[in-house]
Design a protein that fits this description.
Structural class: alpha/beta
Distance between the termini: 37 Å
CATH superfamily: Aldolase class I
Number of strands: 10
CATH topology: TIM Barrel
Number of domains: 1
Bound molecules: ligand LARABZUK
Order of helices and strands: HHHEEEHEHEHEHEHEHEHEHH
């Protein structure tokens, strides 16, 4: 897995190097003490998945594959709509160059609702983990394809010591094997092939049996309907990360409810 992801991570390393000049990890940890404690991202998903489908609803303005997705982008309103529609957690993109994200979107969304929030970004440095907590994030994303084993474990440790959860994202069998060596047991299979930008729900079906014991499996990307949730549940996935198909709907609350219930 390389290409676009490599390009995004190279850009991210440059961005982080520049941002580090403005705040040390100690500064960020100090700022984090003024934030509310982590809300329990994984626990919220596990409790919802025990009784049905658990949704991580994504607040996504744009993407490298589709450009602008939501012209009338209002993160706080979308957060409330997702919560009312039945989402268990939120995902908020904070990457600016490729997704038009911003840390303010995460802070505004989290302040508007009671849901736990994952900072959806490309983690390449432990500094970003402290930054995530300082902006209020309850969880971070670890993209296995973007990191070596040592850095991946350091980023996970930095999140766990701050009380945050990690969603560990994989795209293939080798990455599932590497993910299984981490402590976290919240593993996401990304159905999007980052070389060709096509999505295939079959990726989750192929990798689901390889997840280590105790895993809460999350199927990510390219999910459009309740029928997709039903199909994916047959391979054991009861937790889903959905962005574009919900963000394109005029009534986000209604669309979220329809996705979860089929009604
Ligand atoms: O969304 C993209 O085009 C993309 C491109 C390159 C790297 C990552 C990308 N997406 C990040 C995500 O993981 C998705 O935003 C998330 O899984 C939701 O997917 P979707 O429901 O298809 O919007």
């Amino acid at each position: 897995m390389a290409d676009k992801l490599t390009e995004i991570c190279d850009t991210k390393r440059e961005e982080v190097a520049a941002r580090k000049g403005f705040a040390t990890i100690a500064d960020l940890d100090d700022r984090a003490t003024q934030e509310s404690a982590p809300r329990g991202f994984e626990a919220a998903l596990r409790s919802r998945a025990a009784n049905g489908f658990a949704l991580i609803a994504e607040i996504k303005k744009a993407s490298p594959s589709k450009g602008l997705i939501r012209p009338d982008f209002r993160p706080a309103e979308h957060a409330v709509a997702y919560e009312r529609g039945g989402a268990a957690c939120l995902s908020v993109l904070t990457d600016a160059p490729y997704f038009q994200g911003h840390e303010d979107y995460l802070m505004d969304a989290r302040a508007a609702c009671r849901l736990p929030v994952i900072r959806k970004d490309f983690m390449v440095d432990t500094w970003q983990v402290a930054e995530a907590r300082a902006m209020g994030a309850d969880a971070i994303l670890i993209i296995v394809a973007a990191l070596d084993d040592v850095l991946m474990a350091e980023i996970e440790a930095a999140a766990l010591e701050r009380g945050m959860d990690c969603l560990v994202e994989v795209h293939d069998e080798a990455e599932m094997d590497r993910a299984s060596r981490l402590k976290s047991r919240l593993i996401g299979v990304n159905n999007r092939d980052l070389k060709r930008f096509v999505t295939d729900l079959g990726t989750t079906e192929r990798l689901a049996p390889l997840a280590p014991d105790g895993t809460l499996l999350v199927s990510e990307s390219g999910i459009n309907s309740h029928a997709d949730l039903q199909r994916l549940s047959r391979c054991g996935a009861r937790t889903f990360l959905v962005g574009e198909s919900l963000m394109r709907q005029p009534d986000v609350e209604l669309a979220t409810r329809a996705l979860l219930t089929g009604i």
